[in-house]
Amino acid sequence: MAGAEELKVLGTRQSMFTVRVLWALELKGVEYEFVEQDLVNKSSLLLGLNPVHKKVPVLVHGGKPIAESKIILEYIDETWKQRPLLPEDPLERAYVRFWAAFIDDKLMEACRKAFATTGEDQAVAAESMAEALKLVEQELGGKKYLGGDEEIGYLDLVAGWIAYWLQFVEEVGGFKVMDSAKFPCLDAWIKNFVQIPSVAQSLPSPDELRNIFCAMRMAMQRK
Ligand SMILES: N[C@@H](CCC(=O)N[C@@H](CS)C(=O)NCC(=O)O)C(=O)O
Fold first, then answer.
1. Dist. CA 15 → ligand 1 center (Å)
2. Which of 27, 91, 131, 213 fits a disulfide with 172 by CB distance 3.0 to 4.6 angstroms?
3. Which parts of the sequence belong to the GST C-terminal domain (predicted)?
């Protein structure tokens, strides 16, 4: 009975990748132990459980580690069937995975570049981020959530960083792409998403995020 075995999440509460896993477990009503990690001095536990990427989150179920947040979300959805996160239809599942990869790869990469640069380089990265965000806006269209009108799903959890972390990345990075006038559907989605109790309860404080992003930006500028 896989579902009844001991369940741990190694992560940090400031990590957008960790929090999407906590959201999934929360929505499913699955109990777990949170094992906070120090990413500056990585524990031998983390390095042993995720020797390939050495990153959080790692889900440990019955002693077996699973790494990479989107893979963890799928594992959770397949293991605990209540409150499905992915659609049932294979074609719908494929579309949802396509957009999740787009958000984590194309959009997040442009955001990372905008955060790590200044001047002309930052303007170019911000423009490519705006183009990617426009496509997510179109995908969302008039729906309340990326997962549909009724409730949030896998894609909302993957896109969750746009709803909360992005504002602090922009503030500390000195750029602004998310604009309610340009992206009204996303703006409405953000407001709806962060109000959901299982989402709101795992959001880190603004000051924690400001401190982390300031430290990251200073470290980038020293390079
Ligand atoms: N693709 C990974 C990304 C995870 C990731 O970047 N985690 C960060 C924290 S937000 C981390 O562990 N960073 C430590 C490092 O890069 O050394 C996922 O989806 O889980």
1. 8
2. 213
3. 89-213
